[in-house]
Amino acid sequence: MSDLGLLLRKAREQRGYTLDDIQEATKIRKRYLEAIEEGDYKVLPGSFYVRAFVKTYAETVGLDAEEVLRLYHKELPKPPAPETTAPEAMVKPKSRSVQHNDRWGKIAVTLLMWLFPILIIAIVYIYWVQHPGSKAENSDRLTQITTDTASPSPSFSASPSSTPSATPSGSAPASESTTPSPGATTLTLTKKSGNVDYYDVAPAGTTHQLKIVLSSKSWVGVQENSKSGKYVFNGSPEGGETLTFDLTGPLYVNVAHANVVEITIDDVLVDDGDGRGSKKFTFTPAAETPPAE
Fold it and tell me: Could you give the residue range(s) of every CATH 1.10.260.40 domain in the chain?
């Protein structure tokens, strides 16, 4: 077994995963995963897939994929160098039929180069015509995320110590939205970098509480400031367990399976996409400055 394979295997076993679990999470065949752990890269379809599979495997078991590839690059197979051929001593003149075929070939390539962008534009146009609301949905993801069970307006608010208020029907124009009550916790998605979602947590001057509720067993990692910070928690809790943390500074949260966890801050639900793969977040109190990656 190679050093890289041993590292990946230990990380997998520490989180209680089997190769079947990794196969389900990454969609990589089990025999390829076994080959990676054994260092038998000849089983994999090509050198490009080796690096891609190793990177995906490392991320799934909570390792820094780029660091793993850097440390063990000597173990990974390198792509074959392009073969070079000696120039021919004499270039034979092209026959008339070959020149004719080359001419039509160039015309065909030119037509394809023009038709391809036109086809892309047509597909995009048809998509936007058939999905006029998608642009609004995408922009909504970048707005503040709060909870307000009394009103369907785009802005929501929720606070464990106060009851959300809603504007009665007919008391305000339809274009107005509910304003969060003073002191209500709000989460603002400030940016997405790679596969990390960055949230600002308001209001400032308040100790917010982060909760992670698991419906089944999954690995969870919580670190101070960023993914290179000190671990506050690192383990695989059983289903039904709840992890609670005080958000006094930035926290980096990494979950192996987003579909089996529910993350809230002061009972405000965080949108994790509910996917079967891993999900990462950085939560920063409003008074703090987000840490650099």
Answer: 3-71
pLDDT digits (tens, 9 = 90+) for 131-157: 654 444 444 444 444 434 434 444 334
CA distance 243 to 210: 8
What is the Cα gyration radius of the chain? 27
Give 181's pLDDT tier (boundaries 50, 70, 90).
low
N residues, the chain: 293
Write down the CATH superfamily of domain 3-71.
lambda repressor-like DNA-binding domains (1.10.260.40)
Neighbours of 175 (CB within 10 A): 6
The pTM of the whole model exceeds 0.85: no
Rounded to whole angstroms, how far apart are CA atoms 281 and 187?
12
Q: For residue 25, give both structure tokens.
A: 């999470």
In order of 67, 71, 108, 145, 148, the CA distances from 272 in angstroms are 25, 31, 47, 12, 18
- The three-class DSSP label of residue 35 is helix
Rounded Cα distance between 266 and 157, Å, is: 11
The three-class DSSP label of residue 278 is coil
CB 253 within 8 A of CB 221: yes
Would you place residue 100 in the very low, low, confident or very high pLDDT band (cuts 50, 70, 90)?
Answer: low
Q: Give 241-266 pLDDT, tens digit per residue.
A: 999 999 888 999 999 988 999 999 99
- The separation between CA 35 and the C-alpha centre of its own chain, rounded to angstroms, equals 26
